[in-house]
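Explain this protein:
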Amino acid sequence: MRDLDFIGNDTLIHSTKNNFMRLLLVLSIFFISCTKYSKTSIPTAYRQTKTISYNNTSVDVVIDKPALNDLDVLIVYHGTVLYDMFSLTAANTTLDSFKNILDRKDMMLVSVAYPGENLLFGDNIVQAEAALLWVKNSASAELGITIKKVFLGGHSQGGYLVTRLNTMHQTNGVIANAPGPLNLVYRCQLEENGQVGSSVTCTKLRNIYGTTSSNPNAYFQRSLLNFTNGFKSDMLFVQGLNDSPIQLYSWPTFKQNVLNCTNCQSTQFVEVPGGEHPSLFTSPVAKTEFNNFINSR
């Protein structure tokens, strides 16, 4: 009787173990299915501000994502602001400006709120570069998406930054509207001579390097005229021909230097007769060329 009891108990134990293993298997399949479902669930659209970090450099960005998880990205850079407290406002405004002229609705926009208040002009290339490298190398994993093509767009000082970035890193294409300052030697010399009002940009440079007449090379090294070769990606420049006299003084030289470049990818110029500083966003011709440039790459 005891042997029969033992056999019965042993059978019961094995039966219980088998049922338990079946339950674990069912639960495992259930959780795996849930995980797969969460990864392939319907993509959501959102707009958010995020502090990103790359190579120990942090910067705030505004992300505008459509309801897609496989997408191309346009990274945009705003123009000059005097105080960093306004950088996010400028980043949002610039994002909206580019979004309004962009025909495609399937691209994610990332607007970079780079600093400048406590930096010498040009030193914020570090934060501008960090944002680009974050998008190229980290954003997919951090945001749970797949980034395909990456484009750069910039207005004014933002155009200066994306032009410089094009000498440093390859992307799928770069657009610069009224990039500048083109010639800090000329601009700051006008201030020194009292021909135009003083600016924070030139004052900070003068405090470090002295005047343009005593140290012109220091000013030239930070001018966009110093970055007219070695473009790693195709580039579109837009310039209104009724922009400020300071911008237009050096524009023909800048344009010619770029056209003379022998180690640059393809460059295209759109000059807008009567167009002012924001011509990319106001000229129908410039808008068309902007979209053609992106759509053809």
Q: What stands out?
A: Strands lie at 46-54, 57-65, 70-77, 107-113, 146-155, 174-177, 235-240, 267-272. Residues 46-183+223-295 form a domain with the Rossmann fold fold (CATH 3.40.50.1820). The two ends are 84 Å apart (CA to CA).
